[in-house]
Specification:
With 358 residues, this protein is of the alpha/beta class. The chain is built from 16 helices and 13 strands. It is globular and about 60 Å long. Bound molecules: uridine-diphosphate-N-acetylglucosamine (UD1). Uridine-diphosphate-N-acetylglucosamine binds at residues 11-13, 39-42, 45, 66, 72, 97-99, 130-131, 205, 237-239. Uridine-diphosphate-N-acetylglucosamine is lined by residues 11-13, 39-42, 45, 66, 72, 97-99, 130-131, 205, 237-239.
Length: 358
């Protein structure tokens, strides 16, 4: 056994999850390598996160870039296999539900390297989401499964995962949020856009919402109706940029597009927002902890604790404007409780389990 832990990250949501685990393992003196697949490569989708989060530069960037799911995943499989064979890690840690997560788990399992999955057991039960496929397959391939909430444990148990492999550790993304909260700062964007005190933040990038113009159209209409009520800032993910621009959404005088923002600026904006409209997974969790009402434009969520405990609510384009009214006029008060173990110490709990398994 080499005692080497190799982290695989690649896409924007991986970075705030990996940062606290890397820091906690560092304290234990564990030998670590950080591999970036290159799934996200724009400076504002990747580099800015390394800077904002204080992550060490990746030891290796595989530079796979974009492509169809098959082409992108295939490039990752080939490059990761070479890397794992050369480095012979004792454990590969993977994060979340992106294509980089699945690719790393598959390669490791095939060459007999143990896999730990951070954020295991989340289920939307929506097989049309690429992330759901990634979640289920990654969990099936994993030896150590780190869960953020009790519902995840129940899903894994139902799928037959041995209980001794499952660890309820809390939410490492929230470790990052709590660590950096004092430095959140949305003021540049607020000033540049001349935003009033009360504004909304919106994000939209899920393939099911932005890839198909027929699905996008009602969302654009609904967001324009939100813009009739209060200013909306929408940092545009490259995936939906062309379609969103063509839709005319940003011709509305109170709907403002920005480039993708870094971690500290984005969460600064969210913390100061009256409400958030999103189709992201992680933002449902971040708004829950920041006590900002979150309206999620999806038919389902793999993060139900953000609804039962947090500030989240699933909405359709049809129900969105009315729910925004309810938040603005106070007729729909948004209660919130931070879910158990979302306390800033998840990274340490994960590191303790990892160390005892090396
Ligand atoms: C990926 C994740 C998704 C996550 C999202 C967060 C998968 C299956 N999906 O989706 O779960 O919520 O990241 O951002 O892994 N692009 C750029 N620059 C970049 C990266 C992407 O321009 O740095 C463009 C390319 O046109 C690319 C498209 O965005 O084809 C989609 O990128 P990709 O990594 O395939 O998936 P995301 O939509 O970013």
């Amino acid at each position: 056994m080499s005692g080497l832990v190799l982290h695989v990250t690649g896409a924007r949501p991986n970075f705030p999850k990996a940062a606290p685990v890397i820091a906690a393992l560092e304290k234990h003196g564990v030998r670590q390598l950080l591999v970036h697949t290159g799934q996200h490569y724009d400076a504002n989708m990747s580099d800015v996160f390394f800077r904002d989060l204080g992550l060490p530069a990746p030891d290796l960037n595989l530079g796979v870039g974009s492509g169809s799911h098959a082409a992108q995943t295939a490039a990752m499989l080939t490059a990761l296999e070479e890397t794992f064979l050369a480095e012979r890690p004792d454990l590969v840690l993977v994060y979340g539900d992106v294509n980089s997560t699945l690719a790393a788990a598959l390669v490791a399992a095939k060459i007999g390297v143990r896999v730990g999955h951070v954020e295991a057991g989340l289920r939307s039960f929506d097989w049309s989401m690429p992330e759901e496929v990634n979640r289920v397959v990654t969990d099936r391939l994993s030896d150590l499964l780190f869960a953020t909430s009790a519902d995840a444990i129940a899903h894994l148990a139902r799928e037959g995962v041995a209980p001794e492999r499952i660890h309820l550790v809390g939410n490492p993304m929230i470790d990052t949020l709590l660590r950096l909260r004092d430095r959140f700062d949305g003021s540049r964007v607020v000033a540049e856009l001349g935003l009033p005190q009360e504004y909304a933040v919106a994000t939209l990038h899920r393939p099911g919402n932005v890839d198909d113009p027929a699905a996008l159209e009602p969302l654009v209409t609904a967001l324009r109706e939100v813009g009739d009520r209060l200013d909306v800032v929408l940092p545009v993910h490259p995936r939906g940029r062309a379609r969103l621009e063509a839709s005319g959404l940003f011709e509305h005088p109170r709907v403002h597009a920005t480039e993708p923002l870094g971690y500290l600026e984005f969460l600064g904006l969210v913390e100061g927002a009256r409400l958030v409209v999103t189709d992201s997974g992680g933002i449902q969790e971040e708004t829950t902890v920041l006590a900002v009402p979150c309206l999620t434009l999806r038919p389902n969520t793999e993060r139900p604790v953000t609804i039962t405990d947090g500030t989240n609510r699933l909405v359709t384009p049809e129900t969105l404007p009315g729910l925004v009214d309810g938040i603005l006029d106070g007729t729909r008060p948004v209660g919130h409780r931070v879910p158990p173990l979302w306390d800033g110490s998840a990274g340490e709990r994960i590191a303790d389990v990892v160390v005892s398994n090396l």
